[in-house]
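Q: What would this complex look like in 3D?
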Amino acid sequence: RVFSSFNVRAFLQNAEDVDEVFDDLFNKYGKVVFRRNEQRPSIAEVDDDAETLSFAVAVAKVASDVKAGDIKVLFVKPLVYWTRFFIIATAFSRPQIDAIASRIRDLGEKQYGKVPSGDTKPNSWTLLDFGDVVVHIFLPEQRDYYNLEEFYGNAKSIDLPFENQPPPFRG
Amino acid sequence: MIQPQTRLNVADNSGARELMCIRIIGTSNRRYAHIGDVIVAVIKEAIPNSPLEKSEVIRAVIVRTCKELKRNNGMKIRYDDNAAVVIDQEGNPKGTRIFGAIARELRQLNFTKIVSLAPEVL
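A: Here is my prediction, written as structure tokens for the whole assembly.
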């Protein structure tokens, strides 16, 4: 729609005329609500990153092979610009963190040629940064403490094709 | 350009409010610290009933400086205050949320954890 330029301030000084002016505009042009031309459903954006998505799902599968708990893949591209996917997993001991991290690293190098930057020694919050995909491996207390899922609550969660085990009850 | 005796705000909810830099970690005899450098600091002011107390010596990463940060494309970022995020020996942030915008240089310096907790990345 083309807007003709009005001197809005002059009109607003006469309060009674303003309503009439706006009514005239509505009658002339109809109710125009600004719409961003590129508005797409959030699901469509995921298809752009099919390769990254397949990498993220492969990483999640590797993590579940090592019995990581509660794996979540979040599509954060609409929220942050510096990455596409977050993968959050829980590991229950430091050797398990080490195992998950080294398997994910091997998968990245061999199949996708990506070398991660991030923690080399296992940490209670181990992070592997593959550029478009960031992997967070937590110990259970840290996962509750930092609560990344709440911080990124608006991110769409990607369904994983395999069975996701809930973290087993540890007495 | 942070040096020993510099007071910094704290950009997270760890419980500290103000830090004073004591030492810059890295090469020996380094004069100034910039965004992304780890410093040793003492807590000068803390929130009551928090896990961190006044006059505790901790490590922190500088996230905002009044001295501008220069990028290769010519862009300069200059904040209005000096601020740091409290960190532990392993490099994990002590607080759970970060306040203020964070420069993306922290990601290249292996502080992606801070970047992932930041509300806005410049």
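A: To summarize the key features: The interface with chain B takes residues 80-82, 86, 117-119, 123-125, 127, 129, 134, 136, 142, 145-148, 151 of chain A (CB under 8 Å). The longest strand of chain A covers residues 69-75.
Q: Very helpful, thank you.
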